[in-house]
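Backbones bend. To wit:
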Amino acid sequence: MPPILQKITVPYEYPVYFTVDVFDPGNPDLVEALSRKEPSRRHRMFVVVERAVAEAWPGLAATVARYAERHLERLELVAPPWIVDGGEAVKNDPAPLLALQTVLHALRLDRQSYVAIVGGGALLDAAGYAAATAHRGIRTVRLPTTVLAQADSGVGVKNGVNAFGVKNFLGTFVPPFAVLNDRRFLESLGRRDTVAGMAEAVKVALIRDPEFLTWLETHADALAACAPDAVSELIRRTAALHLEHIATSGDPFEMGSARPLDFGHWAAHRLESLTRNRLRHGEAVAVGIALDTLYSHAAGLLPAAGVARVLDLLGRLGLPRWDEALDLRDPGGRPVVLDGLAEFREHLGGELTVTLLAAIGRGVEVHEMREPLVMGALDELRRRHGRP
């Protein structure tokens, strides 16, 4: 008998707000985001806050309570904000994940309730995964608090945790119900974290938008100084490019093997593991961008002038272009970072697909990374930016 071919089309939409003082009782953005599909309903909300954010904003819990009180007719705060450690540690340790799932069960949140997550990308990933696996999906509202999360991961459709020594081995594709980027949260970031988040802007400009790369070059000094207006513009433009890719790529849940938005990431993910997260994600991405840019040139894809622009911009922003972990070798003398290619292939589903640069603003997919050329790119990167 012939098979029955089942085809399901499910549209997704979610707003991304750019706001200031999101929990100010007079700011309507959050309650409007929660109520946009069911304006007459009173919505239950549970708030998860990264500990570093709570410490940087000591009155945050009281502010959240005042916000809920002001909008009592449309919003019910089911419990005080739940404070949890953030950073990559929250993705490496299964205990916080189980604890959050336990709380979601105890509060009897249903599929129309909301988990509002206030924190950096790692907490958004972990808490989003907890919500996605409770009742097969509790609605999440993301309130990213870092440049990296507001510009990149926080506006996407992925979440997950690390397991078995592999980054994001456990995870789901679940779009958020809404994203609210609050500029005020960036005020408590140190310069290192602010600059690290800019690596994803460089990445997406290199593969998608040459005019944006020119803008980054023009404003590099202001960005390196963490000027608020320049950083806000970087976030908005980067987020817009990521959202456009998700909406128009034809593969928002990455069913295929292509992941163009992961330019520079095969090495970055491995470097994060090798350094035990001494490198921030954005810093590791910057090193990965530098390496893959040199490889693109060695493979005959990118002219030397393009290499110079990329490496110069990374340096002007204050992003690293080399890390000593690139020199780590296995017993056979092979750079350990090369294991990142095998991990990348496995994560993609079996076929290696790496985005390289064919020109500034134009990425190209390849299915092979020739090891001699990778070794040559490592040597060249060491010569240019490694320690003597």
User: Anything to note?
Assistant: The CA atoms of residues 137 and 191 lie 36 Å apart. The chain has 17 helices and eleven strands. The mean pLDDT is 93. The longest strand covers residues 43-50.
